[in-house]
Structure formats: structure tokens, C-alpha cells
Amino acid sequence: MKSLLLLALALACRAAVAAPADAPLPVRADHPFLGAWQIAKRDDDCAEVYRIDRSGRTLITSADEVAQSTFTITDQPSARGYYKWVDTLVKDNGKKDCWGQVTKPGKTTTRYVMMNPAKDRFIVCLAEDGRQCFGPFVRLEGGEI
Question: Which residues of the chain have pLDDT under 50?
């Protein structure tokens, strides 16, 4: 009994070392959110590109900004059709994005993603009511991570 307890404790310690509490959880390989996505600003040629990988990390480029974030996203959409996306900016080069903004690391946002049926576009909303949304984000062909 004592050896089983020690083995369980050793495995728990190994898991804690292998995956720190603040590390993002991996996303299933066929999740429709994975890949490269672009949102274009309507009044000029500026576009933001999000490269979203399975490890729960994102690389964002927008005008002069280069940023990195960690995220979680629900595995399946809610009954209303939205995935819950929680994103935390962890690095930023301090330069302006397409909208003239500079985002400081540490900012966490919760948004709701609704994919189109083909899974090649999505919109992002502040809530699951569909009232305050922006997009579309369009999948970039050949932009797999």
C-alpha cells in the first residue's frame, strides 16, 4: 500500500513538472480553430494574421506589431453555436497594430467564436448573443501550423 502511495505521489509530481499550471492545454488536432486566419481592416490594406497552433499558443502579426498569446478554447460549440475563447497576451513588441493600438502583455480577453458551416471563416463576439461581433476572420490557404 505504501509503495502504491509513493508511486502515485511520484507520478503527480512528474505531471506537475511537465505541465506548469499556467501552460495552455493542447487543442485536439482536428479543431476547426487551428491554422492561420486573417482579418482585414476595411479602409486600408492592413491585415492581422493569427497563427493558432495545437499547443494553445498564437502568433499575431498586425501592421508593425508582433505578439504572442496563450489560449484555451472549448472543444465543441455551445448550444448557441459558439466556442468560448480565452486568450492571454504574453509577449508584444510594443508597436502599433492595424488599428493604431499597442497592447500590453498580461491582458486576458474572453470572446466567443462562431464558425461558418464550411469552417473557413469565423466571427468573434463579446457574448453569445451575436450583438457585438467583428470579423470575418478568413482561413489562409497553406497557413497550416
Answer: 1-21
